[in-house]
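Dear colleagues,

For the upcoming journal club I promised to circulate an example of a predicted protein-ligand complex. I picked one with NAP because it came up in last month's discussion. The inputs are reproduced below in full, followed by the predicted structure.
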Amino acid sequence: MKAHHGMYIGGEWRPAAGADTIEVVNPVDEQVIGRVPAGTSADVGHAVRAARAALPGWAATPPTERAAKLAALRDVLVARKDEIAETVTAELGSPLPFSQAVHAGVPILVAGSYAELAATYAFEEKVGNSTVYHEPVGVVGAITPWNYPLHQIVAKVAPALAAGCTVVLKPAEDTPLTAQLFAEAVAEADFPAGVFNLVTGLGPVAGQALAEHPDVDLVSFTGSTTVGRRIGGTAGAAVKRVALELGGKSANVILPSADLAKAVNVGVANVMSNSGQTCSAWTRMLVHTSQYEEAVGLAAAAAAKYGDRIGPVVSAKQRSRVRSCIEKGIAEGARLVVGGPESPREQGYFISPTVFADVTPDMTIAQEEIFGPVLSIIRYEDEEEAVRIANGTVYGLAGAVWAAEEAEAVAFARRLDTGQVDINGGRFNPLAPFGGYKQSGVGRELGSHGLTEYLQTKSLQF
Ligand code: NAP
Ligand code: MG
């Protein structure tokens, strides 16, 4: 795999300030596939200076011109789609067809959506005797995770650039090659120097330096609740804007009138997709007691069919984290119906698709984000209990409801404390706001709601 030895700062690849590097490992065969520089606070300082210097010019660039650059960026992503998919597969381990369709495909949609929004958004509006300008917040520090390496980057960088902000990105240490490829795409799309900057590095070093930098106006973070809470605290103390996309423990609620087989099959596929490393995955399946054993049987069969067709998880550390969650599920008395903590292969960070039945709402596996291919099936007696269980975690990111009639599912969905609900298997919409209630985060990504995160208003009275 191609790796750059420098940081992309001020429109060029520059040598890193320090000599330390990060090894990038292929989770399928555990081989080192590249090395990138481990950035320090000095690199972050250079990058923030470049972003600050580029801000006035970019903020003053007419939105239609910003839109044209974003459209060019989308076109580069389209032209380099195969390379993107291969890179994500190499460093994340996801099967190539999934990388092509989702890891490369979705960022193209999102970049395209912001090219369009930049051209059409009302950056100026009249409110009574006032003219309200929607102006860029300033320099954005973006910190992204590894689970959807390019999507998480584009979901922050595209709206920030559309808004007229400039960006410093610190991507996950496990997937920096995709981030370097994105920087190449930005260069190819010919954005002005310093509008987008990349510093690879470790979270507690480069990430923290970026979050704490006094000249960063907004920190946009996606990742664990633990780190998010800390970044929120730092931002709060500095009175700077912050957006946090954190974890989830979403419920897939199957109402008795639903098409049970379809709801279970789609639900299992949702959890196993990306090896369970999806913050919005429906990791809790809620089934009425009258259909419970039938649903468990269907889920077991569906999960077993995946076998080792799903990819590994991203790292040895992630594998041991997921394994210890599975062991905890067994120890707390849940019934293991498929899978388990043992490795299905000698090599690679694989975890077997795992399904637990007889999970009670208070068990660790029903409360904590696992971030692996593990499904917990929970029983409910009536609708009130289903609502209570679905809402009974600290999270509120996503969810699903299945019923014979849409109206029944919608009525139930309105009672859920969560930012997104798919009705009877509704499709992903890249324009719909994505983000969490409760401890799943602060702020929204995607579409016009994602754009407004990077804007602040100025009102002129006449
Ligand atoms: P994480 O540590 O929160 O990583 C997210 C990003 O934050 C990475 O770029 C990381 O850098 C960086 N970071 C880490 N510590 C930081 C700090 N002190 N200051 C600033 N930035 C920092 O998440 P993880 O360790 O990769 O995964 C742990 C768990 O988080 C997973 O098991 C899962 O439950 C959850 N997670 C959630 C999402 C989501 O989409 N909501 C995504 C990924 C993970 P490094 O890469 O160097 O750590
Ligand atoms: Mg980490």
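Two points we might discuss: Residues 143-147, 170, 172-174, 202-204, 207-208, 211, 222-224, 227, 230-231, 245-247, 279, 321, 369, 371 surround NAP (ligand 1) (CB under 6 Å). The chain has two domains: 6-246+439-461, 251-429.

See you all on Thursday,
B. R.
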